[in-house]
Amino acid sequence: MTQRRVSTGNRVSTVLARQLGGQLLAFREAAGLNQSRAAEVLSAQTAKVAKMERGWVPFRDPDIIALCKLYGVEDAEVVDGLLRLAKLDRDRRKAKGWWSALDQGNLREYIAMEDVALKVRLWQLSVIPGLFQTPEYTRALAVPEISPDEIDHIERVVDVRRRRQARLYGDHPLQVHAVIWEAALRQMIGGPRAMGQQLAHLRELTELPNVHIQLLPFRAGGYPGVGGPFNILSFADEGAVDVIHMDGLGSTVWVEGEQESAAYAQLFGRLCAASLSPYDSVQLIEGIGKEMSE
Question: In this structure, are strands 119-124 and 230-234 parallel, antiparallel, or unpaired?
């Protein structure tokens, strides 16, 4: 499903609200309850529950808490994630948040989602993922994309990367499982020194308990996922519907359906199965790093 904001009259459906509504819908159906029962708890009309589940309206925290209690959702982390998602949606509608000043609308939408996600699974073919990039690597990567009179843009890109990477640390860090094709580690972005630093940083990240990195080696031969890179963002428990993000040249695609989400999760699983183990991936990272330093 292509990324969009759908508007009908005074109602606006956003990616964030649809995701939150879909989570609550899944919880309601798992509890075996209908919309009328949910409406009773909210002292509202059934139409309100329908609008919430379709992402047509912003969500109030008391409504989310009441519905989670009704549906038997007791995991505090899951409930907190839904509340943060609701706040983010409200802020996005008001254009709040550090990411609201970004030039690219598509990038704003993705970072807004990533900022409240609990887990990200990503598949990358040609470059080191943004969450793992060093400033030197980011600068070298950005140079061919800009004109000489836009040189200040590079530092803005570096700052965005730095802010995103802050989520890898702290009390409740973002859980990241990345599968990266070997080509991304061998592409000489910025020269041997910059790549050496990047590989050393990648090696350091593997020590974080919330970062899981696997490399898909050249010797794997044919592999799934040749269609392009993608990110899977998770906001609740393992059984909830995820959102898939794919960024192409001049366009962004969000995949939000339950069947589509499951298909990408299966594809990611096949990529993991075809890749090296985390231990062997570290050995390959170190081996490529030594080759570049010789």
Answer: antiparallel
What is the DSSP secondary structure assignment for residue 174, as one 8-state letter? P
CATH number, position 55: 1.10.260.40
* Whole-angstrom distance, CA of residue 79 vs CA of residue 203: 34
Neighbouring-strand partners of residue 13: 6
Residue pair 1/256 in contact by the 8 Å Cβ criterion:
yes
Residues 128 and 268 in one domain: yes
Q: Is the pLDDT of residue 3 over 60?
A: no
How many domains are contained in the chain? 2
235 and 92 share one domain: no
Task: Indicate the pTM of the whole model.
Answer: 0.73
Range of the domain at 143: 109-293
Backbone region of residue 58 per phi and psi (left: phi > 0; alpha: psi in -120 to 50; beta: other values): beta
* pLDDT in the model for residue 28: 94
Q: Can you give the CATH number for the domain in which 114 is found?
A: 3.30.870
Q: What per-residue confidence (pLDDT) applies to 143?
A: 76
| Whole-angstrom distance, CA of residue 227 vs CA of residue 84 | 32
**Which residue is it, tokens 């990616």?**
15
Residue 41 has pLDDT above 50, yes or no: yes
Q: Do the beta carbons of residue 114 and residue 164 sit within 8 Å?
A: yes
Contacts of 36 (CB under 8 A, 6+ apart): 46
Placement of tokens 């960024």 in the chain: 247
* 53, 187: one domain: no
Does one domain contain both 80 and 135?
no
**Residues forming a β-bridge with 233:** 120, 243
Q: Is the pLDDT of residue 2 over 50?
A: no
